[in-house]
Specification:
With about 525 residues, the protein is α/β, with parallel strands linked by helices. It contains 23 helices and 6 strands. It has a 6-stranded mixed beta sheet with strand order 1-3-2-4-6-5.
């Protein structure tokens, strides 16, 4: 009882420190990604995009107009049908958006990153707990297994990839948890010598929840299923195979009953077609693998993956040349049901993902980290005694935790480089703003946050840039303090700015910032 209490206190302490770190990152978050804007809008708005409003283009709007897309308004409380409808018209299943919608309903009708981050903080409590449970099984023959498991689980939850996932208002933290839960349940299934109905029901429910969170989860689940099918066939456990398969089929049926649009999204939408075309382009596919390895190095291993791989190679060579295999210790039997699905997921995501983005591999980043650290520890104990191996691993953990400071890397969606532009446009200037918009490069949601803090703004769609048209937009507007101009891709910025200068008699042009999809300028008479 005393040991159990001590274990819970250690876990609680780890979760508190983890939560503090995530909250600090949350307070440092200065901007939102386009997909985060989509998350908020799809969860709360009556359309997939604010640009679909008939009055969106070529009209002056106040900041509340844009904030409405990013928050739940008083007349929207208790309404959830738009979540399902929006996801039907988008490319993802609806579960995460429903959870986000509920959390946003506790807000104050204004945009905030905190409903999304608080959801992820709670999810990351369970991520760390399930990683701890998984590690206990992997390290079960080790001394101090509980202490080692919670330390490694904690470290895996505060890598740059994990912190990015925790402050990223998307479904990837939930998908990470789904991956860990299904992994843990399959570890228990591996230990089960007879049919365990309760366990199979839990697997079915977990598979259902995962499939309603993100489609890429099915890559991981598919390989897990293949591993166990092969296992049951080899062992001639056909009854077990039947009930196991039945649990998966039931999960699939209920998933399609709840959200039948998954079929359209996966096989007939633009994402599905993109997978096929990329698969047929071998050089492009191999390039994606290399670029994803670099993402993994930078964020899942805090820029130390290549050094760790080199260390593994050196230890393997040393072991082969110098050490006689007297040590009977073998790699944990649970490793294969992690490594194969993780590798399969990684490769298929490289094929399927439309862009090379960290978010797509976030759900397996923690497992990749654990696998590499486990194998390093396994090799260390082949060369050194356990005491020395533990000291080396502790030093390694310290280096991993300090490396973001040394390499000056931050969580990918912290956006500290945009803090100044948010402050400048929202507080220091806050003057009439015009987005001269080329609709062929529509990424307006990348910058909707700025428009939600500017008092008055105008999005001019595919405007013919004449002095007359610019003057018509700005008539009756006070431009004595200047104006802000946004220009997105596909336009001749210098030529357009010259027209605006002549139309407004604002002769000084200050370049403020390059954002994800546009350039921002400040025109004035200084």
């Amino acid at each position: 009882m005393k040991n159990r209490k001590k274990e819970l206190l250690i876990i609680l302490f780890a979760l508190i420190i983890q939560t503090i770190i995530i909250i600090i990152c949350g307070f440092g978050k200065s901007y939102i990604h386009m997909d985060e804007a989509y998350s908020l809008g799809l969860a709360s708005y009556d359309k997939t995009e604010i640009q679909n409003n008939e009055d969106f283009y070529d009209n002056w709007h106040n900041k509340e107009y844009y904030e409405d897309y990013l928050s739940v308004q008083e007349d929207e409380y208790g309404k959830y049908s738009q979540v399902y409808e929006n996801q039907k018209n988008d490319v993802h299943p609806p579960l995460y958006y429903l959870i986000l919608r509920i959390a946003m309903g506790f807000g104050n009708q204004h945009f905030s990153v905190w409903p999304g981050i608080i959801i992820n903080i709670v999810i990351y409590w369970f991520i760390t707990i399930f990683m701890y449970l998984i590690l206990q099984k992997i390290l079960k023959d080790e001394s101090y297994v509980k202490e080692k498991s919670i330390i490694l689980a904690f470290i895996s939850s505060i890598t740059l990839a994990s912190l990015t996932s925790a402050i990223y208002i998307r479904m990837y933290a939930l998908s990470t948890l789904n991956v860990l839960i299904i992994t843990f349940l399959h570890m228990k299934l591996l230990e089960s010598e007879k049919i365990n109905v309760k366990l199979l029901i839990c697997i079915s429910i977990s598979a259902l929840i995962g499939s309603l969170t993100h489609y890429y989860y099915l890559f991981y689940l598919a390989m897990l299923y293949i591993i166990f099918v092969i296992k049951y066939i080899k062992e001639k456990q056909y009854k077990m195979l039947f009930y196991y398969t039945l649990s998966m089929v039931i999960a699939g049926i209920f998933s399609l009953i709840i959200f039948p649009y998954s079929i359209q999204h996966m096989f007939f939408g633009y994402r599905g077609q993109g997978v096929i075309s990329k698969l047929l382009n071998v050089p492009e596919f191999l390039k994606s693998i290399v670029l994803y390895i670099e993402k993994t190095n930078r964020f899942a291993f805090n820029n130390l993956l290549y050094i760790l791989i080199l260390a593994i190679i050196i230890m393997l060579i040393y072991k082969k040349m110098k050490i006689k295999e007297n040590n009977k210790e073998k790699v944990s039997k649970f490793i294969k049901i992690i490594i194969l699905p993780t590798l399969f997921y990684f490769i298929l995501v490289a094929i399927a993902s439309p862009w090379i983005e960290l978010r797509y591999i976030m759900p397996i980043s923690g497992l990749m980290f654990v696998l590499v650290i486990y194998y390093i520890y396994y090799l260390l104990k082949k060369i050194f005694d356990e005491k020395k191996s533990n000291k080396i691993i502790i030093i390694l953990f310290v280096i991993i935790l300090l490396s973001p400071i040394v390499f000056k890397i931050e969580p990918e969606v912290l956006f500290s480089d945009k803090r100044e532009i948010v402050q400048k446009l929202g507080n220091e200037l806050n003057i009439p703003t015009i987005y001269l918009f080329n609709s062929q490069n529509n990424r307006f949601l990348d910058d909707i946050l700025l428009f939600s803090i500017i008092d008055e703004s105008y999005v001019a769609k595919d405007l013919e840039y004449t002095e007359e048209n610019i003057q018509k937009i700005l008539q009756q507007k006070d431009i004595s303090k200047g104006i802000i101009i946004f220009l997105n891709e596909g336009q001749k910025n210098d030529d357009i700015l010259e027209v605006v200068k002549r139309a407004t008699n604002l002769n000084n042009c200050e370049y403020l910032k390059r954002l994800n999809a546009c350039d921002v300028y400040y025109l004035n008479n200084k």
